From TrEMBL:
This is Peptidase M20 domain-containing protein 2. Residues 214-305 form the Peptidase M20 dimerisation domain. Signal peptide: none annotated. GO terms for molecular function: dipeptidase activity. It comes from the Eukaryota. It comes from Fistulina hepatica ATCC 64428. Pfam families: M20_dimer, Peptidase_M20. Belongs to the peptidase M20A family.
């Protein structure tokens, strides 16, 4: 199968096209109109269904957007999405596998068919839905309803499963569900994610692996003026470690990232701090590179404790693996995208996702789609953009592509076999583009 991937991408989660500017919310997006000669009967069903539920999906997206919830606390989103899918006769399992805000919704037609999974993220950040997970959630349920309709209309045997996955932003909800067997019956899984970029741009590149570190320094408090020599300064330990990591950046590869914050408790200018906490993310193109780089960061953290005499404790969080995009799914996605007037690219990003771990377990695809945003993901401006009609239109378009792709996987046995055999995915030497 020939590839339709284009060599350029956009920033945020893409690299800029040289000739394009970012798509701004003031620029209206013309309607997505598939090329009639390239649209199958299944695609026509998908289009019809998603166009019919367009306003319902918009309502779901805006409801979740206006009720932002942090990871593992997405109760409103859980109830909103399961209620929507119940309306369309999906079998619902709430609080899936012991996670309060996870869910599973499934529909089966016929016997002996394959199983396509869809992941629906729904958590927000402290500044709201600044990563657009409201759009991901709406897309997930929309794709499922469209696939269900195509299975019935065209008598395709198979099962479509939506898994509501909490806490992508640091909590690793998908990893927990994987470990508990929550995706073991899926033959393939798909989802999408928004980013800043020009209109009609989509991307199926990889992402970085990421390790989170919580570092605590324990010292001894003392009066900062009368007897500072009696103190052991935990804040100094964190500053020394932070400075050592800043110096390390001179020798870092362009593909690597390390970033973090410092916090404390009961700090006062006239008291030597006896406690400081640092939280860091370490990123690299692959898990092996991430593990090696983490050891170098750990040495910097230890330098703070050594220099000040503090005791140090490191807690390792759940590691996120790099995305292993399935090439066969990716190439089919690019071809279908073209028929919907979307431009597919294949550029890697320096962001990370717990969906990367999913892609190491089964065939999967995680395309990125552009929405009109003044700033990149995790900014207040991106949160505003995630509620626009233009962002919704972009979400609906990629949802049509994903639904057609899901139906192709369920309907075409030769294609499905190729997807399953393609468990080697991306080239390790391909460069990673920068996030703003």
């Amino acid at each position: 199968m020939s590839s339709n991937f284009q060599p350029g991408c956009i920033t945020g989660l893409f690299r800029p096209f040289h000739e394009n500017q970012f798509w701004l919310s003031s620029e209206a997006l013309p309607p997505y109109t598939p090329q009639v000669d390239k649209v199958s009967d299944v695609a026509s069903t998908v289009d019809h269904v998603l166009d019919n539920i367009d306003r319902e999906l918009r309502c779901v997206s805006l409801q979740i957007h206006s009720h932002p919830e942090l990871g593992f606390h997405e109760n409103f989103a859980h109830d909103t999405l399961t209620k929507f899918l119940s309306k369309y006769d999906f079998k619902i399992t709430k609080h899936y596998l012991g996670l309060q805000t996870a869910f599973r919704a499934e529909f089966t037609h016929g016997t002996g068919g394959r199983v396509i999974g869809i992941n629906a993220e729904m958590d927000a950040l402290p500044n709201g839905h600044s990563c657009g997970h409201n759009l991901i959630a709406a897309s997930g349920v929309g794709v499922a309803v469209a696939i269900k309709a195509a299975l019935i209309t065209h008598d395709i045997p198979g099962k479509v499963v939506v898994i509501g996955t909490p806490a992508e932003e640091g909590g690793g909800g998908k990893i927990i569900l994987l470990e508990r067997g929550g995706m073991k019956d899926l033959d393939a899984v798909i989802m999408c994610h928004p980013s800043q970029g020009p209109a009609r741009a989509v991307n199926v590149g990889s992402s970085t692996a990421r390790q989170s570190l919580d570092v605590e320094y324990f010292g001894q408090s003392a009066h900062a003026a009368e007897a500072p020599w009696e103190g052991v300064n935990a804040l100094d330990a964190s500053f020394i470690a932070y400075s050592a990591i800043s110096a390390l950046r001179q020798q870092m590869k362009p593909t690597h990232r390390v970033h973090g914050i410092v916090s404390g408790r009961d700090w006062s200018p006239n008291v030597i701090p006896d406690y400081a906490k640092m939280q860091f993310y370490v990123r690299a193109p692959t898990k092996d590179e991430m593990d090696a780089f983490t050891e170098r960061v750990k040495a910097c953290l230890e330098s703070g404790a050594l220099a000040t005499g503090c005791r140090m404790e490191i807690t390792y969080g759940t590691g996120y693996y790099e995305l292993h995009q399935n090439n066969t799914l990716g190439e089919a996605f690019a071809e279908i995208s073209e028929s919907y007037g979307l431009t597919a690219a294949h550029e890697d990003t320096s962001a990370s996702t717990d969906f990367g771990n999913v892609t190491h377990e089964l065939p999967a695809l995680h395309p990125i789609f552009a929405i009109p945003a003044e700033k990149s993901n995790h900014s207040p401006q991106f949160a505003e953009a995630a509620a626009t009609e233009e962002a919704h239109a972009a979400m609906l378009a990629i949802s049509k592509v994903l639904a057609v792709l899901g139906c192709k996987f369920l309907q075409d046995s030769e294609f499905a076999s190729e997807v399953k055999s393609m468990m080697t995915f991306v080239d390790a030497d391909r460069p990673v583009c920068d996030l703003l």
